[in-house]
Amino acid sequence: MTRVATSAVPIAGLPSSLDAYPVYQIRVKDGAEQSATLLRLHIRAVSAARAATWPAALAAMDDATTRWLFKHGAGKAKRLRDRFGDQTLDLLYRWSSAGVVVFEVDPPAQPGGPHGSVYAWRLSDAVKAHADELTQRARQQQTLLQDQARELAEQLRSWPALQLLSQTLIEAPDAAFAEHAITAAESLIDDLRQKPRIEQVASAGDAPAAEDMILQRLGRGQMRDYLVEREPIARGGQAVVSVATHKATRHRVAYKRVRVRDADARARMRREIDFGRLFGDHPHVMPILDADPDGFWFVMPLANGTASQHAPKLQHVDQLKTMVISVCEGLREPHRQGLVHRDLKPDNLLLLHGRWTVADWGLGRRPRGETTEPERTRTGSGYGTVGFAAPELSVDAHDVGPSADIYSIGQIIGAILTAKTPQANIPLLPATGPWISIVEHTTRYHPAARPQSVDELLDAVNAVG
Question: Do the beta carbons of residue 286 and residue 362 sit within 8 Å?
Answer without folding.
Answer: no
